[in-house]
Design a protein that fits this description.
Elements lengths: L2 H14 L1 E3 H7 L4 H12 L5 E13 L1 H9 L2 H8 L7 H5 L4 H10 L3 E4 L6 E4 L7 H10 L8 H9 L3 E13 L16 H6 L26 H15 L3 E2 L6 E3 H4 L31 H12 L14 H5 L1 E3 L4 H12 L7 E10 L11 E12 L3 H13 L6 E8 L2 E11 L4 E11 L1 H4 L8 E9 L1 H8 L14 H6 L8
Parallel strand pairs: 6-9
Antiparallel strand pairs: 1-5, 2-5, 3-4, 7-8, 9-10, 10-14, 11-12, 12-13, 13-14
The structure holds phenylalanine (PHE).
Length: 494
């Protein structure tokens, strides 16, 4: 606070007993607003002054009124523009404010229409005029309008040359705690004040409950994680439990071989998969399971012919960044099969996967997959369709269509399409299928146990939900961090 100013005000009040803040502003040559601000801080110190609010009505010139005060009234300007010989009315109308000026000059009896000539012309009717409107407005501008009648003022107001304003000020008087100096206000109650007891004599600053406050610094979830929270909630509501996905580094065995994906499959190429160079290989595998996987690939079994090629252990040992979360599902199903007694399961996972993609507006080299798996006796494709229908219904998606597809590990396989009302078209949202016997039986799951599964990306629904056209606005080095703070929480069914 400007305590110099506060003390000037108090000193003036001490000598004069009372003063209006407007008058004080002109005496101290200060802006009135500043005087009011200082008054507020004086009041924070207690009842030093009594401030009685005063609302004074006043009039001031409008922009048009100021013009008239400077350049004359519209009617006077019309009068001045009329030459001795007369002028066509249309010429006068071209002047600024010609229309009002003309009719005022006519009703004042300053000009007339001479119809004795053809076409008629406008001529002066009186040799001289007095521009009273201009004089009045100049007086109002100078703050001296006692000689102007209320009727005249009403007329100028109607012509929008003047307007009424309310000037707010305060009449200041000495208060019960008047003093010419301000004591410093304490902002904190300290332990010293409590111990010494001097808190009783100190003055404390009042709380300002209208202060805007400092915006709290908080963490906030990225839109992808907001959508993940919502997906997770849906799975949990449907009785699914979450699989552990905390291993981005996987080996080819679990990522591909266990899923009956042949070693020559193009997805197992360095063009599609990020292989790890250090450590390059994994060596610990469940030995007998590994040999059953080798055998189903190379020779077949369980009613299948297999792929009939020389399965290479080295290829299965290669480490990589997992290309899909189905690697996690494979590990989990194998673990389930090792239990003494089979029990049905409903599992889900939502986490990162990595692919050696060419980056563009809709593809990144790392993205998230949402995956659901159910294993139970005698499940059918009908169960799979039933579960999705329920799952997607909770996302607000009710129109689904399926298209036959191919995955090495599922048969049958279906791509899932949904109708997007916003985009007005069918879009692919996921992939699904029933895990093949060549995948499940080497794990030693009971013969009549079927596993149905589906997967979708987390990025696609997030982009649709938050209106991103470019995936790089969502993740990567160009992300606007404020976007992360601004994005609202996600409700998928709304
Ligand atoms: N793993 C598949 C993919 O990466 C998705 C999928 C999951 C398909 C489960 C079928 C069953 O696209």
């Amino acid at each position: 606070m400007n305590s110099g100013m506060a003390e000037k005000i108090l000193k003036y009040l001490d000598e004069n007993n009372e003063v209006n803040t407007l008058k004080l502003a002109s005496i101290l040559n200060e802006d009135h607003q500043k005087i009011i601000g200082t008054l507020k801080s004086i009041q924070a110190h207690g009842d030093l002054v009594v401030a009685e609010p005063i609302n004074e009505k006043n009039i001031e010139l409008t922009e048009e009124g100021k013009l008239v005060a400077r350049q004359g009234s519209h009617e006077a300007n019309i009068y001045k523009a009329v030459p001795e010989a007369g002028i066509a009315q249309s010429e006068l109308m071209k002047l600024s404010n010609g229309k009002v000026g003309f009719s005022k000059a006519m009703s004042n009896g300053w000009i007339f229409v001479d119809k004795s000539v053809n076409p008629p012309v406008i001529k002066k009717k009186v040799p001289d005029i007095k521009d009273i409107a201009q004089e009045h407005l100049q007086q109002i501008e100078a703050g001296n309008h006692s000689s102007i009648t209320d009727k005249e003022k009403a007329e100028y107001k109607k012509r929008k040359l003047i307007q009424e304003i309310v000037i707010k000020s305060f009449l200041l008087k000495k208060g019960p705690e008047f003093s010419t100096t301000l004591t410093k206000l304490e902002t904190d109650l300290t332990s010293d004040m409590l111990l010494s007891g001097n808190w009783k004599d100190l003055k404390f600053k009042e709380y300002n409950f209208d202060a805007l406050g400092v915006p709290p610094v908080t963490g906030c979830l990225h839109p992808l994680l907001k959508v993940r929270t919502e997906f997770r909630q849906i799975f949990l509501e449907m009785g699914f439990s979450e699989m552990p996905t905390n291993n981005y580094v996987e080996n080819s065995f679990w990522n591909f071989d266990a899923l009956f994906q042949p070693q020559q499959h193009p997805a197992r190429d360095a063009h599609d998969t990020f292989f790890i160079s250090d450590p390059q290989f994994s060596y610990t595998f469940p030995e007998d399971y590994l040999s059953r996987v080798q055998s189903v690939h190379s020779k077949g079994g369980y009613g299948s012919q297999g792929y009939r090629y020389d399965w290479d252990l080295k290829e299965a040992q290669k480490n990589l960044l997992r290309t899909h979360t189905t690697a996690v599902s494979a590990r989990m199903l194998y673990k389930l099969a090792q239990q003494k007694e089979f029990r049905p399961v409903k599992w889900f996972s939502i986490d990162k996967v990595f692919r050696n993609e060419t980056l563009d507006a809709t593809h990144l080299a790392e993205f998230h997959q949402v995956e659901g798996v159910i294993a139970d006796y005698n499940l059918t494709l009908g169960d799979l369709i039933g579960v999705f229908t329920e799952f997607f219904k909770k996302l607000g998606i009710t129109e689904l269509e399926f298209k036959p597809a191919y995955n090495p590990y599922t048969e049958p396989s279906m791509e899932i399409f949904c109708f997007h009302p916003g985009l007005g078209k069918w879009i692919e949202i996921g992939n699904s299928g029933m895990f093949r016997p060549e995948m499940l039986l080497p794990m030693r799951l009971p013969e009549n146990v079927r596993a149905i599964a589906w997967g979708l990306s987390l990025e696609r629904p997030t982009m649709i939900k938050y209106g991103f056209n470019n995936i790089r606005d969502l993740t990567g080095p160009k992300v606007d961090l404020e976007m992360v703070q601004r994005s609202p929480i996600c409700r998928l069914d709304k």
